[in-house]
């Protein structure tokens, strides 16, 4: 109820709760992710299909978290639409590293560690659990308004990561 009242107060005051907030100090090394991004044509390793989409990454909760909201459109090998999905990911500092929780409504991935090159790159990795794959999601700033994205997976019991999808995003805001 307090959250609803706070949101209503912001709305009535004409202030959007998603207005630019500075990321907290624990997120400062990845502030380069914040913005609105459009995806060029990405590739799907297993099908040979392609992807396009949009992504918005904002600082939320007083800058304590980054929230990524995406829509991805999928195309088969011939370029015909084959589906699409929405996804979210919350990135937050915990302990001595960054964590991230991802969901597309059907799957959940808990990334419990991150390798950071402040201002340039971040790679999130999930934990190895018996019988489960390990996921790796990487972002690399290629130019001031271009971001490379790679998503890979190591099958259960393996330490070898195989590409799932790769692409490039261009900042629009």
Keyword list:
ten-stranded antiparallel barrel; 1 helix; 6% helix; disordered N terminus
CATH second-level architecture: Beta Barrel
In terms of quaternary structure, the protein is single chain
CATH class: Mainly Beta
The share of residues in helices is: under 10%
Task: List the domain count as a whole number.
Answer: 1
Description:
It comes from Gluconacetobacter asukensis. This is DUF1579 domain-containing protein. Keywords: Signal. Residues 1-20 form the signal peptide. It is a single chain. The protein is mainly beta and 173 residues long. The protein has a single domain (21-171), classed as Beta Barrel (Lipocalin), CATH 2.40.128. 6% of the residues lie in helices and 57% in strands. The protein has 1 helix and 10 strands. It has one helix at residues 2-12, and strands at 35-44, 50-60, 65-75, 81-94, 97-103, 108-117, 121-126, 134-143, 146-154, 162-171. A 10-stranded antiparallel β-barrel has the order 1-2-3-4-5-6-7-8-9-10. Residues 1-19 have low confidence and may be disordered.
Summarize it:
This is DUF1579 domain-containing protein. The chain is mainly beta and 173 residues long. The protein has one helix at 2-12, and strands spanning 35-44, 50-60, 65-75, 81-94, 97-103, 108-117, 121-126, 134-143, 146-154, 162-171.
Secondary-structure map:
Elements lengths: L1 H11 L22 E10 L5 E11 L4 E11 L5 E14 L2 E7 L4 E10 L3 E6 L7 E10 L2 E9 L7 E10 L2
Antiparallel strand pairs: 1-2, 1-10, 2-3, 3-4, 4-5, 5-6, 6-7, 7-8, 8-9, 9-10
